[in-house]
Amino acid sequence: MMRLMKKAIGEAESGRGPREDRGVISARIISAARDEFIEQGVSGATFRAIARRADVDPALVHYYFASKERLLDAATTPPPDFLDNTQTAISAPLAIRGQRIIEHVVSSWAAPSTGPILYATFLCANVDERTREKLRASMSANFIGATSQRLPQRDRLLRAGLVSSQIVGLCWHRYIWKLDPLATMSDRDVISAVAPTLQKYLNGRM
Amino acid sequence: MMRLMKKAIGEAESGRGPREDRGVISARIISAARDEFIEQGVSGATFRAIARRADVDPALVHYYFASKERLLDAATTPPPDFLDNTQTAISAPLAIRGQRIIEHVVSSWAAPSTGPILYATFLCANVDERTREKLRASMSANFIGATSQRLPQRDRLLRAGLVSSQIVGLCWHRYIWKLDPLATMSDRDVISAVAPTLQKYLNGRM
C-alpha cells in the first residue's frame, strides 16, 4: 500500500509515470468518497475512512484532493457523456422533448457510470450548500433551455422548476427511497407515465 | 437540571405529577431530537447531544425514550390534526381533490407544528428503513384512497405513486433544497401550478 502511494506520488511529482495509474487510483478514491458521503453524510465522512475504503494511504487521498470540498466536488461531477446526452435530450424536437428527457433521466440512473453520482449529488445537496448550488445551476440551465422559447422568461422559469420537481420526486421514489410501484416498474412504463406531465410543463397549457 | 430530572422521574414513577410537566419535557426532547437527526443524520445523532440541545440530563432522555428508534419514531410522527386534515383533503369531491391535497401539503409544510416533522421524516427516510416504511405506508394508503374508485386497483396504485412523486419533488425544491422559483413563489401560485397535475393523476386520462 505504501509502495503504491510512493509510486503514485513519485510519478505525480516527476510527471513521468503512466497516466493510467494516476487515473485508476484517483477514480478509486473518488468512488470510495462517494460511498462514504452517501453512508456517513458530508460532515461524517473522513479522509481516513475514505482511504480505508479505497485501500490507499490517507496521505495519498490528501495528495490527490487537498480538501473535502474538492473530493465532494469530484464525487458529484457526472461524466462528460452524461452532459452530452443531457444536451441531446433537451435539444430534441419540442413535441417529443418530454419523452426524451425522462428517457435520459431513467437510463442515467440505471447506468453504473452515472447512477451513483446522481444518487450522491441528490443526497449531498440536502446538507451541503455548494452541491445544492451546483445542482440548481445545472438543472435550471438545462430545463429552462428545454421549455418552449415562445413563452415569456418568467413562465419558462416556473415550467423548468416544475419539470425538475416531477423528475426529482420520481427519482426519490424509484432510486432513493425505492418505493413501489415506481421502484419496480419497467423503465418503459415509468417513461410513459411521466413523459406527458413533463411535456405539459415544457409547452402545454397550464 | 438534575433537580428537573429527578422531579420528572419521581412524578413519572409515582404517577402523581402534573401531566403538563411530563408533556412539556418530552416535547422538548422530541424537538431537540428532530433537529439533531436533521443536522447529524440518524447514525450521527447521540442521546448526549440531544440532551444538551433539550437542556436536560441524558439520563432523562433515556428514561423517556429507551432507544434511538423510539426517539426517531416520536420525532417523525405528525400531530393528530395533520392526519385529520389529510383525511379531509383526500375525501374532498373528486373534481377538486387535487387542489385540496396540494393546499393541505403546502399549509402543513408552512405550519411550525408540522413543517419540521415532515422535513425530518423526509430526510431520515433517506437513511433509515423504518422511517421510509412509515412514510411509504402513510403515503400509499392516503393517495390510493384519493384516486378514483372506478379505476382498477393496479392503475390506482400507479396513480397514487405519481401523485406522491409530484408532491415529494415539489417539497424537495420548495422546502428542503429551497430552489427558486418554487421556493419563493406564493402558496397560491404553487397550488395553482401543481393542482392540475395531481388532478390528472387522480382521475384524468393518462
Condensed summary:
Two copies of one chain form a homodimer. Chain A has eleven helices and no strands.
Structure report:
Chains A, B: Keywords: DNA-binding. Chains A, B: InterPro entries: Homeodomain-like_sf (IPR009057), HTH-type_TetR-like_transc_reg (IPR050109), HTH_TetR (IPR001647), Tet_transcr_reg_TetR-rel_C_sf (IPR036271), TetR_C_16 (IPR041678). 2 copies of one chain form a homodimer. With 206 residues, chain A is mostly helical. Chain A folds into 2 domains: 2-75, Orthogonal Bundle (Arc Repressor Mutant, subunit A); 80-203, Tetracycline Repressor, domain 2 (Orthogonal Bundle). The first copy, chain A, is built from 11 helices and no strands. Chain A has helices at residues 2-14, 19-44, 47-54, 58-64, 68-75, 80-90, 97-110, 115-125, 129-146, 153-176, 187-203. In chain A, helix 6 packs antiparallel against helix 7 and helix 10 (153-176) runs antiparallel to helix 11. The radius of gyration of chain A is 20 Å and the shape is elongated. Mean pLDDT of chain A is 89; it is low at 1-18. At the A-B interface, helix 2, helix 9, helix 10 and helix 11 of A face helix 2, helix 9, helix 10 and helix 11 of B.
Q: What is the fold's blueprint, element by element?
A:
Two copies of one chain form a homodimer.
Chain A: H1 2-14, H2 19-44, H3 47-54, H4 58-64, H5 68-75, H6 80-90, H7 97-110, H8 115-125, H9 129-146, H10 153-176, H11 187-203
